[in-house]
Design goal:
By secondary structure, this protein is of the alpha+beta class. It has a 4-stranded antiparallel β-sheet, with helices on one face. A hairpin with a 2-residue loop joins strand 2 and strand 3. The longest helix has 34 residues. The model has no long low-confidence stretch (mean pLDDT 85).
Length: 146
Amino acid sequence: MSKYEIMVIIDGRLKESDATPVITELKNILKSAKDLNVDSKMGLRDLAYPIKKINRGYYYILTFSNDEPSEIKEFRRVASIKKEVLRQLIINLEKDYGYKATINPKKVAKSEFRKEKYRKAKENFLAEQEKIKREKDTTPVKLTDV
């Protein structure tokens, strides 16, 4: 199950009571998301640069786990249609190469290959460490070494 983080910036000219239903509607798109958490601690902030001639925006961060890339695609589509949403950024927090890697067969195969290669290297490393540890444990200790 992939972990995602989405940052959404909503138009700062709206009141906070008008911005909350927008984020609630976007949140409802993620039906099969597990551990969905909406963080609005950032609140209303000045933007680093104007977006659509707007200088302030409400920042919301959604964190969740999901197996359905279609829901994330739908989220992106709806967020780009809504006038109130200035920007959205979807980040896959997993080790693979993001949202596109879950739908591109070539990238999925490459990710699986790298995962298997990493697993084998890790096993070899741990086996070598265990071998070195056993050799050190069986070496007799002389009284002059102390």
